[in-house]
Amino acid sequence: MERVATIERNTKETKIKMKLNIDGTGIAKVESGIGFFDHMLEGFCKHGFFDMDLQVNGDLQVDGHHTVEDTGIVLGQAIADAIGDKQGIKRYGSFILPMDETLVLCAIDLCGRPYFCFDCDFTVDKVGDLDTELVREFFYAISYKCGMNLHIKKLSGGNNHHVIEAMFKAFAKALDEATQKDPRIQGILSTKGSL
């Protein structure tokens, strides 16, 4: 049975509809109004084997902040809803992803307790039409809405496009691993019996 979540979130700043299939094949239909952000979400889906249908209508006449942050909130909620009670999932996932001169680490614990660590400095304010400072806000929003312990660290790299793209792909690979079911796991992978 596929794990799917559909989320709709409407505020004065953004209107967002998302359908996420954790057990997909990598198909992305995304429209945020921010081209580079769409490209990153498409990469996230392709490399994590997630299917996503996303429409965002945000106040881009102000800036991209609400669009990107609120998409992170919705994606975090969608991940949490799709994995449900976490029965049988591996819970942990990590990946070190190379992209040309760039190397990025991402590690995840789907423990139900949000914690976010982001270790990266960008050298430009924008890549395409995406403010680079919004990359942190996006992943922070996912972490806290999902209840995910999320660490993202740039190990090396100078090209900001490569660094951001490596982050999205590393996150996808780590999340794919953490959400996979392992037949050896009976119930929930925790000595406490709950996550």
The dominant shape is: globular
What is the number of E strands? 10
Please count the helical segments: 4
Tell me the span between the first and last alpha carbons: 22 Å
Q: What is the H/E string?
A: EEEHEHEEEEEHEH
Low-confidence stretches: none
SS-based structural class?
alpha+beta
Helix content: 25-40%
The side-by-side strand order for the widest beta sheet comes to 1-2-4-3
Whole-number average pLDDT? Answer: 96
Nearest-angstrom radius of gyration?
16 Å
| Estimated share of beta-strand residues | 25-35%
**Main beta-sheet strand count, sense and barrel state:** 4 strands, mixed
Describe the structure.
- This protein is of the alpha+beta class.
- 34% of the residues lie in helices and 31% in strands.
- It contains 4 helices and 10 strands; from the N terminus they run βββαβαβββββαβα.
- A 4-stranded mixed β-sheet has the order 1-2-4-3, covered by helices on one side. Strands 5-6-10-7 form a 4-stranded mixed β-sheet. A two-stranded antiparallel ribbon has the order 8-9.
- Helix 1 (35-48) links the parallel strand 3 and strand 4 (51-58).
- Helix 1 runs parallel beside helix 4 and helix 2 (65-83) packs parallel to helix 3.
- The mean pLDDT is 96.
